[in-house]
Specification:
This protein folds into 3 domains: about 5-55 and about 65-110 and about 125-215, no CATH class; about 230-280 and about 290-355, no CATH class; about 360-495, no CATH class. The termini are far apart. The protein has a 3-stranded antiparallel beta sheet with strand order 3-4-5, sandwiched between helices. The protein is about 50% helix and about 10% strand. It is globular, with a radius of gyration of 27 Å. It has helices at about 5, 30-55, 60-105, 115-120, 130-145, 150-165, 165-175, 180-190, 195-210, 215-230, 235-240, 265-280, 290-305, 325-330, 345-355, 380-395, 430-440, 495-500, and strands spanning about 245-250, 255-260, 320, 335-340, 340-345, 360-365, 370-375, 410, 425-430, 445, 455, 460-465. It has about 500 residues and is mainly alpha-helical. The chain is built from 18 helices and 12 strands.
């Protein structure tokens, strides 16, 4: 089995809220003026940015180089936006042309090609069928762009999604405000959603996509998609579990790769257990790397039986956040969060919690989803703070870093020696590598009132990083500390009791 067969994208334009090909508008449908206006929107900034790069003097400082790289990244986004728009429009024209040609052939039998008609009947193919037109167009475009057909199919999916489903995302990409990978993620997560939900997805993600790392946007996009998906996650999780499988493929140098497709909670338990055993190994004569030890442990477990360990068998820690308010408001739609993975069904989270030796109360902001406090009944303040940061930040708070909380440490945003306090507003999680960046290499972090951290690189590059637990960033205003809008929630009697709004003397609630 090839890597393409294993990893090929399952994205499908039929899962996007799209009207049928041949019925979608293109700029030329609105006249020559509209077509030229669209052309200007796509290419004017490309020309201006390219000219600016061409005319700038040779790089003589690091700051100049970083500015040039930033402009080149913006130019690449603009080019990708223009390419997507042209690709989608070209396919639309191909479908319309085929449809018009088919209609003419029906009206005028004399237009039929007498040599082609027998071959058409032999192969049982209708040249005007949308699937046939798509297949032929993909082959043509892949030759024109010198890429594989599989790659071109993925590009066409992205192009149709941008042009006809996510126009705001196309606009941001054509201005160079977001990266192509972020735009691809927004289109990908628009699958299976209604048009209004796609609009909500864009309005929520685009404000932070202008500054956030691609990985941070992708994580939030996936969580929003799970919340908006019309089919409850519990049903999709059951279907996914039925599709569990083991696949493998051969690699060069006598090697092979093995892939497991299984429920996330089991995958996290396996990797946590393997990591624990790998870190416990302290033989000074063992020259293997940690990665080699991890693989050898898995092989030993599957081939020779699990390695012998002293004492009680390891129970790998799996952290799960269960939102009680959401569970009460709508149990079928509520999502829990599996640390190191993301959203999982509430039912799965409750099954994991059955075996938990203890529980920890976590208070979240219902407006944004950010963790703002943890239970302190059984922990010293330092332990409570650690729990708070692990649940609030999720991973290292350096832009683009996804190292989990377990491998990160508490860092003072304002240094302790400079008078900084050990509080939730002056601490965040940083991995050791990015602690070194902050304390030794000149990176600066500033805590903002809305809970985000403003990072400044040694040469002036600015990036705003949100806490990993934030799920709703709609109407987030970094400068004015504006609280995001509260999503609509059905206030049933049970929810009112949880919020403390239940009045027994009130005849409507009593």
């Amino acid at each position: 089995m090839s890597k393409r067969e294993v990893f090929h994208s399952s994205d499908d334009p039929r899962r996007l809220p799209l009207s049928p090909p041949g019925t979608r508008p293109t700029p030329t449908d609105f006249g020559l003026w509209a077509a030229h206006l669209d052309q200007d929107n796509l290419f004017t900034q490309i020309a201006a940015t390219a000219r600016r790069l061409y005319e700038q003097p040779p790089v003589s400082t690091t700051a100049q180089g970083l500015d040039a790289l930033k402009n080149m990244s913006r130019l690449r986004s603009m080019l990708d936006a223009a390419q997507a728009a042209i690709l989608a429009d070209s396919f639309e024209h191909a479908v319309k042309q085929s449809s018009e040609q088919g209609t003419q052939e029906l009206l005028h039998d004399s237009l039929r090609d007498p040599l082609q008609e027998p071959s058409t009947r032999f192969y049982s193919v209708n040249p005007n069928d949308e699937a046939v037109v798509r297949s032929s167009f993909v082959a043509e475009a892949s030759i024109a762009m010198r890429v594989t057909e599989a790659n071109l199919r993925d590009q066409l999916f992205f192009a149709e999604g941008l042009r006809h489903v996510c126009p705001q995302t196309l606009e941001e990409l054509s201005c160079g405000e977001i990266t192509t990978r972020t735009a691809q993620e927004i289109v990908k997560q628009s699958q299976d959603l209604e048009p209004d939900d796609v609009q909500h997805l864009q309005q929520t993600l685009l404000p932070i996509a202008r500054t956030a790392a691609d990985s941070a946007v992708a994580h939030r996009a996936r969580k929003i998609h799970e919340r908006l998906h019309p089919q409850p996650i519990e049903e999709r999780h059951k279907k996914g579990a039925q599709d569990r499988k083991v696949t493998y493929w051969n690699e060069p140098n006598g090697m092979s790769a093995l892939q497991l497709y299984l429920p996330a909670e089991k995958a996290l338990s396996i990797i946590n257990t393997v990591n624990w055993h790998a870190t416990q190994h302290d033989d000074p004569d063992d020259e293997r790397t940690e990665q080699q030890r991890r693989l050898d442990i898995i092989c030993d477990a599957l081939i020779d039986g699990w390695p012998a360990t002293p004492g009680t068998p390891l129970k790998a820690r799996v952290a799960v956040t269960i939102p009680a308010l959401e569970m009460l408001a709508n149990p079928k739609r509520a999502l829990a969060d599996l640390e190191g993975y993301g959203p999982i069904p509430i039912g799965t989270a409750l099954r994991i919690a059955q075996d938990a030796p203890s529980f920890m109360k976590v208070l979240t902001d219902p407006w944004s989803g950010a963790v703002i406090d943890v239970g302190r009944e059984k922990y010293r303040p330092s332990k409570a703070l650690r729990d708070l940061l692990r649940n609030r930040d999720i991973c290292c708070r350096f832009p683009g870093c996804n190292r989990p909380a377990e491998t990160s440490e508490i860092d003072h945003i304002e240094a302790w020696a400079a008078g900084g306090h050990t509080s939730r507003s002056n601490t965040h999680l940083l991995c050791k590598r990015h602690q070194m960046f902050k304390h030794a290499l000149g990176w600066q972090a500033t805590y903002l009132a809305d809970g985000s951290v403003n990072w400044r690189s040694p040469h002036g590059v600015i990036c705003i990083e949100l806490p990993g637990s934030v799920t709703n960033v709609q109407n987030f205003d970094f400068e004015r500390d504006q609280t995001p809008m509260l999503p609509p929630v059905q206030l049933t009697d049970r929810v009112r009791r949880v919020l403390g709004w239940f009045d027994p003397s009130d005849p409507e609630t009593g």
